[in-house]
Structure formats: structure tokens, C-alpha cells
Amino acid sequence: MMSSPSSVDPMEFFVEQVAGDDVTARVQSMRKLKMIGDALGREETLSRLIPFLNENVDGDDEILLSMASELGKFVPGLVPGPRAFPIITILEQLAAVEETVVRDKAIASINVIVPFLEKSDAPALLSMIKRLVNADWFTSKVSACGVFHTVYKKLASSEGRREMRSLFKELSEDETPMVRRSAARNFGPFVEMIEQDHVISDMLPVFRALCNDESDSVRQLAIGGAHSIAKALTDPGINSDTILPIVRNASNDLSWRVRNNLAKGFSDIVKNMGVKPSDMGELFRCYSSLLRDNEAEVRAGAVIEMAKMTQLGGSHLFVTFVADTLPSLAEDGVMEVRSKLAQSIMACVEPSICGKLSDSIILKSFTPIFESFLSDEYSEVQLHILNNLSRVSHLLSKMDGIVNKILDMTSDKNWRVKKAVAILMPFLAESMGVAFFEGYLLDSWMKLLQDRVADVRSAIVISIIKLSKVTGPDWIQKEILPRTKRVYANSTSYLTRVTIIGCYVSLASNDASHRQLQEELIGLLLKSFDDNVPNVRMISAKGLRQFSHHCDDTAVVMKIKTALTQRIAREDDDDCKYFSQMALDDIVSFF
């Protein structure tokens, strides 16, 4: 019979578990490797557990995966950096196994541990790199590429660094495509660690070779490192002479995957290149070709970069190279492209993301797209516009077609659309005027307040704060409160009454300085205490508690205190009594 873990040494228990026949139990034990180490303590882990693991790097892939993952957690908490190299030895073995996920996790753990090692461990790390690079099987070479950047940073000797650059070049020219792919994938992190002179002499030729590799999968990964080498070179002139031609070629690559990878990171490349203004036009020409690409995924990848590119290039380059592509993109047959475009053009009008476009450019370039997307058959596209249209609320008075679209959408079948419209309505009042809101939107606003979907009703509670700021408290008191009082009195749905109370609380908390409106709102909240539905009375109590935090009028607060005291005395619902008591306790503590 197997011993219980409480009656044996943690190490013995662990050995017994991982040596068993039950694969599930072995996996579970290995997943608790860090816990076993903590139970053993530092010295026992170093003297017993690590040597055991070093001699038993075999078994099911899932067990090895757990081992690779758990070992990365040992340093620096359990095992200090100066004593951690024996763990690297185990991970080196795991980095050579056939299963990809195990190797990837082993490399990730090595990269976690290496920064904590002593500088005196650098020669041993270099030896590890050499063993992996010179191994017979490609798996070790693939793994080696992933640790170059952390080991290079740890090395202090110029000779050791030179040797590592030479080894990486060797990997980038390996006859096995998988090795070259790994070199291309890890080129970026590695080149960022290298001194500029050596980037030009040693790494730039490697990058060119990878970007011209016969395998499109290698070129695809290599172009992803363009922003890293541009950052490492730092000099705009050198970048224009060396990286710009590579970007130009990649934008015309026969493989759509290469073009797609370039498109998705185009703004990072441009930003890190820091090219001269005279060369920025060439980069935008490449970007424009990606926006017009035959493959939808490439177009989608390029479109999502639009706001960043506009911020980098300015309005002139946007008008020259990007604006002409917008009509065809807006009519793209692939929904994902239109959705990404909707996101991007709204990002282009967000000052914190892109503040380069003037109102005249926005009106000319984006208004037709706004109108088109608000009529799109997919609500996702519509919502990207609606949810962010407040960013151009100051221009809505010049966008009659868009305003008409929004008026039609107040009764849309999709509740998400109605929610977005409810949030947007006060911005229309701000742009078009209070009279417009009263004449065309007020009835729709009241219908949305009674919508059967909770999120739509909640949007009205949120938007009434903005509406009050736009219209003023006098208008709210004259036009909104009489309507809400009628709806409250005639409503058979307690949910509608709860929504109206939410509006009262929002108004009372945000317009506390307007005494007349405040007094009427408090009266309405206190009146709702007599509602026959406990949920409504409970929401009223919560609302009064919230309002008391914002009110500095002692007389008003005392009125609320009296009403709460009376309500508690006659309340028969425990929840209502609880929240009423909480509100009363707050008032007593504050006043």
C-alpha cells in the first residue's frame, strides 16, 4: 500500500509518485514540483531534488512539460541565482526533446533564470549554446535560437559575443527550414541586444538573407524583426538606406503571409526607423499598397495600423496616400476588413491616439464612411461607429445624413445598437441643440428608458447626466421629470420604475447645487419608498444613501433621515430594512 504524504519525507513521496504506473498521478506530482521544493527547503532541493530530476529527464511529454514549467519558478525564490545553474542543465536537456511545447517552455524557463545567474556562469552558458547549435538533431538548434538574447546580454567578453553572433549566422543559414524559421522568429530580441557597429557589420547581412529566404515562412517571420533592427540601428540615414528597401520588397512579396506580417507591424517599423521626411512618402506608398492588397487578411492587418500611421505621417501623407483607399475599403466584401476600418477611422478622430486630422479632412474623408457603416448589415461594424461617434459630436450638426441614420436606429432590433444610441443622444443634443432633441429625440429617449433590455435602460441612466449638463437643470425639471412621473405612475413593470429611480439618483448626485431640482428629486425618491414592490424600495434606499454622500444641506439630509427611520420601523422586507439601515447609519456617521 502506498504511504501517505504526511508519513514520509516529501522527496520520498515525490519519487514514489513519479515512478508509479499511473500517468495522471505522475503528471499531477510533477505539477506540484515547486511545492515539493518549498517543502524540502533550499538545501535539500539543491542536494536531492535537482540531481534526481537531472537523472530522470524522460517520460511522457506532459510530464516533461510540467517539469519545464515548474523549474522556471524555482529562481530566485527557492534557489538563489548564484546557485541556479544546475537547473539550466536540466532545462538544456528538455530543450532538445522532440515535442515543441516542451522545448518552448524549457526555453522560456531558461530565459527567466539566466538574468539571475552570476557573471561567472557566462562561459558555461556559452558552452550550452554551442552544444545546442552543434547538436545532430534540429530540435536543439531550434531551441538555441530562443536563448541567444538573454545569454548574449549576460556575456561580458567581446570574444564570446563575437562567437555568439557567428553562431547565430550559422543557424540562419542552416539547411533545415525549421531552424531558419526559429532564427527569423528570434532575430528581433537578439539584434536589440547587439551594439550598433556589430548590427551593421554582422546582423544586417543576416537579416537581408532571412528576408530573401526561399521559404516564405522564413521571410514572413523575418520581416517581423524589421522594427527591432531599425531600433538597433537608430540612425535615420542608415535605416533609409538599409531597411527601407527591405520593407519595399516585402510589401510586394509574392507570399501574402509575408505582406500580412509586414502590414500588422508597419507602424512600429516606421516609428523605429525614424526616417527623414523625404523618405516617409516612400513608406506611405508601401503602406498604401498593403491597404489595396488582393488578400483580405493583408488589408485588415494594414487597416488596423491606420491611426498610428496617420499620427506618424501627418495629414498631408494621409490625404495623399490613404484617403483614396477608404471608399473601396468601406465597400470591402469581407466583414472583418470593414470592422477593422470602422475601428481605425474612429481611432483617427481620437486626440489621444491621433491628433493630426483637421475637422475639414474628417468631414470630407470620413462622413461618407460613417453613413455607410451605420447602415452595414453587421451590427459589429455599426457599433464600432456608434460607440465612438461622440468623439466627433462637435461635427454632427454638419453631418445630416448621419443624424438621420441615428434617428432611425432608436428603434433598431439589436439591443446593443439601441444602447449605443442611448449613450449618444445627449451628444446630439449638444451638437444639434436642445430644441432638436426635444422635437426629434425626446420621445425616443423615453421609449428607451422603458426598453425590455436592462443594458439599454441602464444606458439611459448613464446618459441623463450628460443630458442634464447639455440642457441645464431647469429644462430637466420642466421636460423630463413630468414625463418620468407619468411613466412611473402608470407603469406595471417594476423594472421601469427602478430605472426611473436610477435617473433620479444620477441627477440628484450630479446637480446637487441646483436646490429646486434637488428638492423635487428627493421628494420623488422618498415617495418611491411607498412602492409595493420591495426591489423598488430597496433601490430607493440605496439611492438615498448615495445622494447623502453628495449633499451638504443639513435640512435635506435630516428629512431623509426621518424618512429612513420611519421606513425601517414599518418595513417588513429584510433586504429593504437592511439597505435602509445602511443609509441611515451613513447619515448618522457623516452628520
Index terms:
591 residues, flat, mainly alpha, 37 helices, single chain
Structural description of this entry:
- The chain has helices spanning 10-18, 23-31, 33-40, 42-54, 61-71, 85-94, 100-113, 122-133, 138-145, 148-154, 158-172, 177-185, 187-191, 196-211, 216-223, 226-233, 236-251, 256-264, 266-273, 277-291, 296-303, 306-313, 315-322, 326-330, 335-348, 359-374, 379-386, 400-409, 415-432, 434-449, 454-471, 473-490, 494-510, 515-527, 534-548, 554-570, 574-590.
- With 591 residues, it is an all-alpha fold.
- Helix 36 packs antiparallel against helix 37 (574-590).
- The termini are far apart.
Summarize the helices and strands and which ones pair or pack:
Blueprint: H1 10-18, H2 23-31, H3 33-40, H4 42-54, H5 61-71, H6 85-94, H7 100-113, H8 122-133, H9 138-145, H10 148-154, H11 158-172, H12 177-185, H13 187-191, H14 196-211, H15 216-223, H16 226-233, H17 236-251, H18 256-264, H19 266-273, H20 277-291, H21 296-303, H22 306-313, H23 315-322, H24 326-330, H25 335-348, H26 359-374, H27 379-386, H28 400-409, H29 415-432, H30 434-449, H31 454-471, H32 473-490, H33 494-510, H34 515-527, H35 534-548, H36 554-570, H37 574-590
Helix pairs in contact: 2-5, 4-6, 5-7, 6-7, 8-9, 8-11, 9-12, 11-14, 12-15, 14-16, 15-18, 16-17, 16-19, 17-20, 18-21, 19-22, 20-23, 21-25, 22-23, 22-25, 25-27, 26-28, 27-29, 29-30, 29-31, 30-31, 31-32, 31-33, 33-34, 33-35, 35-37, 36-37
